Amino acid sequence: MNYRTTLYLFLGTLVLGIFISQFVIYQSVQHSLADSRIINVAGSQRMYSQKIGKSALLLVENSANSTIRVELEHALEKLETQHWALQHGSPDLGLDEGRSNSSTTLSLFDSMQDSYLGLTTAAHEVLDAPDASLMSSSLSTIISNDQKFLPLMDAIVGNYEEEAQERIEQLQEIGLLIASFLIILTVVCLFLLIQPLLRRFHHKNSKLSKVNEELIRQKNQLVIETGEIKEEIEYLTIAKQKAEEATLAKSNFLSNMSHEIRTPMNAVIGMTHILKEENPREDQKEHLDTIMFSAENLLVIINDILDYSKMEAGRMVIERTNFDVKEVINNIYKTLSPKAKDKQLLFQLDMEEDIPRYLVGDPTRLSQVLINLINNAIKFTEEGKIILTIRLHGKTKDGEAKLYFEVKDSGIGIPKEKHKAIFESFSQADEHTTRMFGGTGLGLAITKRLVGLQGGVIKLQSELGKGSAFSFCLPYPVGEAPQETMVETKNVLKEKGIEGVERILIVEDNVFNVKVVKRILKFWDMEIDIASDGYEALQKVREKDYNLVLMDLQMPRMDGYEATETIRSWEELKYQSLPIIALSASALADFRQRAFDVGMNDFLTKPFKPKDLYQTIERHAIQLRA
Q1: Are β-strands 580-584 and 602-605 bridged in parallel, bridged antiparallel, or unpaired?
Q2: Whose C-alpha in 101, 233, 265, 582 is 20 to 30 A from the C-alpha of 340?
Q3: CA 85: distance to chain centroid?
Q4: Using one digit for the tens of pLDDT, what is the confidence trace for 316-328?
Q5: Contact (Cβ atoms closer than 8 angstroms) between residue 579 and residue 570
Q6: Three-state DSSP class for 427?
Q7: Would you say 463 and 510 are in contact if contact means Cβ atoms under 8 Å apart?
Q8: In the predicted model, is pLDDT for residue 435 greater than 50?
Q9: Cα–Cα distance, 620 to 580 (Å, whole number)
């Protein structure tokens, strides 16, 4: 027998059991109701027989009372009707016509037949008697027969009750038999149903045992592999540490190299500025312009290498300062227009008027990106035009202005297969481009990263021979107009002094840099003292009152950090308020931040232009005068 057949058999058995149980209960209720009616009718016979005797006695005493006569007639009628119904049935009384009494009950009815007939006959005689004297003889008959009728009627009622109880017990036995049969059948069906489940359970249990064994095997394998992974992690951790150490060493090397290169560059650029202001001959001016051009190009290469190093080490910091974006763009345009003009190229600026003038961001890095892209456009365009486009592309959810920048040229273009490669470090479109136009191949790599650090993505549209268009969008919080705007100094070397600054201490160990700074400061009629290291600077600051100190950072014996920290530790107010400006050939953010942490007031990167030095000193002179 399969599982489905067993299930159907079990359900069928339940349905059959429920049907039989309902049938037995129904029959039991019907029999109980019938027995109750019979017992009630039989019991009321005693009442009516007694009422007949009582009414007959009252009628004998008062034969003229019609009410008593009616009561007697009613009682007699009921007694006769129910006596017939008990033996033959009566639908009116709720007794089935087809019902039959037991032999015991029939025997009792036969025994009481004489007393019943005597009682009823005498009652009819009382009702038919014309006077009370005749009623009296019938009354005695009623009383004597009633005394015989009542015990027999009680026996009939008792017999009915016994028969009803026997039927109830029989039905209970039948119910127990049915329940026992159903229980046995249910147990058998459940056993048949459970057997397949037990087989499945046993089968699944064996499968689980096999799975458990496999899991234990895999666990052991994992323990072995985990050990190998731990060894690999330890190896990778060591390799990572070595890579970080190598990156740090490379960063430090590039920083040191930048410092060592910038130091003589400061002397070259500074002396060139000074010589150009000493009325050179026309041929000397040409030579000086060549020196300046070459020095500035070399400085661009140095800055590219340094920026690349900072990005590789994750030390590039994007400033957030309030700036005039239109002034920045116009300065870029003014700076690069002569370069485009020299190649007979049309350089157009298309800047939307609706752009907010003041934004919060890093103007230096924005200028670096645009100058790099425009310089490339000028370099790789032989004829035609270059267009710098700036548009307002709406605002972000945070209320930031989203600016769109595009540098488009009509130059040599870039093949589509080279679009990704040109953004890689030390990469150009091809070797011919490198030989023909030069360059380190870092410009676009740095540009891409700078755009990314400012929250944008640079895009390129170009075809070979059809020019190129570099574009990107940057979000900027809208800034506020500054209270005061410093007026740009066109030729600071012709200025005569800075009010409030008369005596300056130069702390510098490189004699060439000392000469450059000293010659520039002489143009402004300042008294100058020189200290070659931090120790000497401390002595001179103790001996004299200086308006301002120009402090180099990297020096023998005591560097600029320690010297500044020592000056700030002195309690006198003049040492706390003395302006100290850092002069460093390193442009790394770590050096700048450390300079401010030890108490320096400003930071000037070498090589610097005379204008930068003048504006820095003037900025602090304003505070001194206040």
Answers
A1: parallel
A2: 265
A3: 88
A4: 678 888 999 999 9
A5: no
A6: coil
A7: no
A8: no
A9: 10
Q: Would you give the DSSP letter of residue 393?
A: E
Q: Which amino acid is at 492?
A: V
Q: How crowded is residue 232: how many other Cβ atoms within 10 Å of its Cβ?
A: 11
Calpha distance 324→328 (Å, rounded):
6
Q: Where are the beta strands (DSSP E) in 202-341?
A: 321-324
The backbone torsions φ and ψ at residue 491, rounded to the nearest 5 degrees and listed phi first, read: -140, 85
Q: Which two tokens stand for residue 247?
A: 């990156």
Specify the pLDDT at position 438: 42
> 551, exposed or middle or buried, with CB in 10 Å at 0-12, 13-18, 19+?
buried
Maximal C-alpha separation, the chain: 185
601 and 581 Cβ atoms separated by less than 8 Å: yes
CA–CA separation, 263 and 606 (whole Å): 7
Q: Which of 586, 12, 519, 597 is nearest to 257 (CA)?
A: 586
Whether the Cβ atoms of residue 403 and residue 473 lie closer than 8 Å to each other: yes
Residue 129: predicted pLDDT: 77
148 pLDDT band, cuts 50/70/90, is confident
What pLDDT, on the 0 to 100 scale, is given for residue 143?
84
Residue 229 identity? I
Distance from C-alpha of 368 to C-alpha of 361, rounded to nearest angstrom: 13
Residues 6+ apart with CB under 8 A from 604: 550, 581, 582, 583, 584, 612, 613, 616
Residue 75's Cα: distance from chain center in Å?
A: 94
Q: DSSP labels for 518-556?
A: HHHHHHTT-EEEEESSHHHHHHHHHHS--SEEEEESS-S
Beta strands in 553-613 (DSSP E): 580-584, 602-605
DSSP 429: S
Of the ranges 7-11, 289-293, 353-357, 539-543, the best mean pLDDT one: 539-543
Q: What is the mean pLDDT of residues 477-506?
A: 74
Provide mean pLDDT across the span 182-201.
75
The C-alpha angle with vertex 305 and arms to 456 and 615, in degrees rounded to 5, equals 80
pLDDT at 436: 45
Cβ 392 vs Cβ 402: under 8 Å? yes
pLDDT at 431 exceeding the cut of 60: no
Return the number of other C-beta atoms located less than 10 Å from residue 473's C-beta. 18
pLDDT in tens, 508-535: 988 888 888 888 888 888 899 999 999 9
pLDDT higher at 65 or 327: 327
